[in-house]
Fold:
Amino acid sequence: SLFDEPLAIAVQGLGPRQQVTLRTSLRDETGQLFQASARYQAGDDGELDLARCPALPGGSFSGLEPMGLLWALQPQKPFWRLVKRDVQSPFLLQLEVFEGHEERPGRLLAQAQHERVFLRDGMRRVPVRQGRIRATLFLPP
Structure:
Protein backbone atom coordinates (compact mmCIF):
# COMPACT_ATOMS: atom_id res chain seq x y z
CA SER A 1 0.00 0.00 0.00
CA LEU A 2 1.02 3.61 -0.38
CA PHE A 3 2.63 5.03 2.74
CA ASP A 4 0.04 7.81 3.15
CA GLU A 5 -3.04 5.63 2.58
CA PRO A 6 -4.99 4.05 5.45
CA LEU A 7 -4.23 0.41 6.13
CA ALA A 8 -7.04 -1.94 7.16
CA ILE A 9 -5.87 -4.44 9.79
CA ALA A 10 -8.04 -7.39 10.80
CA VAL A 11 -7.45 -10.77 12.43
CA GLN A 12 -9.75 -13.75 11.86
CA GLY A 13 -9.87 -17.21 13.41
CA LEU A 14 -9.47 -16.20 17.04
CA GLY A 15 -11.56 -17.64 19.84
CA PRO A 16 -14.67 -15.76 21.01
CA ARG A 17 -13.56 -12.74 23.09
CA GLN A 18 -9.96 -14.00 23.00
CA GLN A 19 -7.40 -11.53 24.34
CA VAL A 20 -4.45 -10.84 22.03
CA THR A 21 -1.60 -8.38 21.65
CA LEU A 22 -0.74 -7.03 18.21
CA ARG A 23 2.76 -5.75 17.56
CA THR A 24 4.12 -3.92 14.54
CA SER A 25 7.77 -3.37 13.79
CA LEU A 26 9.94 -2.04 11.01
CA ARG A 27 13.57 -1.19 10.48
CA ASP A 28 14.62 2.09 8.93
CA GLU A 29 17.31 2.35 6.27
CA THR A 30 20.04 2.41 8.93
CA GLY A 31 18.71 -0.77 10.57
CA GLN A 32 17.18 0.90 13.63
CA LEU A 33 14.12 -0.89 15.00
CA PHE A 34 10.77 0.83 15.56
CA GLN A 35 7.90 -0.96 17.35
CA ALA A 36 4.37 -0.43 18.63
CA SER A 37 1.94 -2.78 20.36
CA ALA A 38 -1.68 -2.76 21.41
CA ARG A 39 -3.94 -5.05 23.42
CA TYR A 40 -7.27 -6.16 21.99
CA GLN A 41 -10.15 -8.50 22.67
CA ALA A 42 -11.75 -10.33 19.74
CA GLY A 43 -15.49 -10.16 19.20
CA ASP A 44 -17.96 -12.93 19.97
CA ASP A 45 -17.33 -14.26 16.44
CA GLY A 46 -13.54 -14.51 17.00
CA GLU A 47 -12.79 -11.63 14.64
CA LEU A 48 -10.80 -8.51 15.37
CA ASP A 49 -11.14 -5.48 13.09
CA LEU A 50 -9.10 -2.49 14.23
CA ALA A 51 -11.60 -0.14 12.56
CA ARG A 52 -14.29 -1.37 14.98
CA CYS A 53 -12.45 -2.67 18.06
CA PRO A 54 -10.78 -0.24 20.46
CA ALA A 55 -7.32 -0.98 21.83
CA LEU A 56 -7.38 -1.70 25.56
CA PRO A 57 -5.13 0.18 28.02
CA GLY A 58 -1.59 -1.11 28.48
CA GLY A 59 -0.06 -0.87 25.02
CA SER A 60 1.44 1.95 22.95
CA PHE A 61 -2.02 3.57 22.72
CA SER A 62 -5.64 2.85 23.62
CA GLY A 63 -9.03 3.56 22.10
CA LEU A 64 -10.40 3.25 18.59
CA GLU A 65 -7.32 3.93 16.45
CA PRO A 66 -7.38 1.88 13.21
CA MET A 67 -3.91 3.18 12.22
CA GLY A 68 -2.53 3.32 15.77
CA LEU A 69 -0.07 0.49 15.19
CA LEU A 70 1.59 2.66 12.54
CA TRP A 71 1.52 6.16 14.02
CA ALA A 72 2.59 4.84 17.45
CA LEU A 73 5.83 3.25 16.18
CA GLN A 74 8.63 4.21 18.57
CA PRO A 75 12.39 3.80 18.12
CA GLN A 76 14.27 1.35 20.32
CA LYS A 77 17.17 3.84 20.30
CA PRO A 78 16.25 7.02 22.25
CA PHE A 79 15.66 10.22 20.24
CA TRP A 80 15.87 8.41 16.88
CA ARG A 81 13.49 9.56 14.13
CA LEU A 82 11.86 7.53 11.39
CA VAL A 83 13.09 9.15 8.18
CA LYS A 84 12.83 7.78 4.65
CA ARG A 85 15.74 8.84 2.46
CA ASP A 86 15.22 6.53 -0.54
CA VAL A 87 11.56 6.78 -1.59
CA GLN A 88 12.14 4.20 -4.32
CA SER A 89 12.35 1.37 -1.77
CA PRO A 90 9.46 0.41 0.56
CA PHE A 91 9.31 0.13 4.31
CA LEU A 92 8.67 -3.50 5.32
CA LEU A 93 6.14 -3.59 8.14
CA GLN A 94 5.98 -6.73 10.30
CA LEU A 95 2.71 -7.49 12.08
CA GLU A 96 2.52 -10.15 14.79
CA VAL A 97 -0.40 -11.45 16.83
CA PHE A 98 0.41 -12.86 20.28
CA GLU A 99 -1.81 -14.68 22.75
CA GLY A 100 -2.78 -12.72 25.88
CA HIS A 101 -1.90 -9.34 27.34
CA GLU A 102 1.32 -10.12 29.20
CA GLU A 103 4.36 -7.81 29.26
CA ARG A 104 6.39 -10.56 27.64
CA PRO A 105 4.75 -11.76 24.42
CA GLY A 106 2.70 -14.93 24.70
CA ARG A 107 2.52 -17.62 22.03
CA LEU A 108 2.81 -16.29 18.47
CA LEU A 109 -0.54 -16.93 16.75
CA ALA A 110 0.02 -15.26 13.38
CA GLN A 111 2.35 -12.96 11.53
CA ALA A 112 2.38 -11.04 8.26
CA GLN A 113 4.65 -8.70 6.34
CA HIS A 114 3.39 -5.69 4.43
CA GLU A 115 5.16 -3.25 2.10
CA ARG A 116 4.48 0.47 2.53
CA VAL A 117 5.59 2.11 -0.74
CA PHE A 118 6.10 5.79 -1.49
CA LEU A 119 5.65 5.80 -5.27
CA ARG A 120 2.77 4.42 -7.34
CA ASP A 121 3.64 2.02 -10.14
CA GLY A 122 4.78 3.93 -13.21
CA MET A 123 5.74 7.09 -11.29
CA ARG A 124 8.87 8.74 -12.70
CA ARG A 125 11.42 10.43 -10.46
CA VAL A 126 13.44 13.20 -12.15
CA PRO A 127 16.30 14.95 -10.30
CA VAL A 128 16.35 18.72 -10.86
CA ARG A 129 19.65 20.65 -10.71
CA GLN A 130 19.45 24.27 -11.82
CA GLY A 131 21.93 26.75 -10.37
CA ARG A 132 21.54 26.51 -6.59
CA ILE A 133 18.20 24.67 -6.81
CA ARG A 134 18.18 20.99 -5.88
CA ALA A 135 14.86 19.19 -6.13
CA THR A 136 13.10 16.08 -7.31
CA LEU A 137 10.17 16.09 -9.71
CA PHE A 138 7.71 13.20 -9.49
CA LEU A 139 5.66 12.62 -12.66
CA PRO A 140 2.64 10.31 -12.77
CA PRO A 141 2.35 7.78 -15.59
Remarks:
- Helices lie at 68-71.
- The CA atoms of residues 12 and 56 lie 18 Å apart.
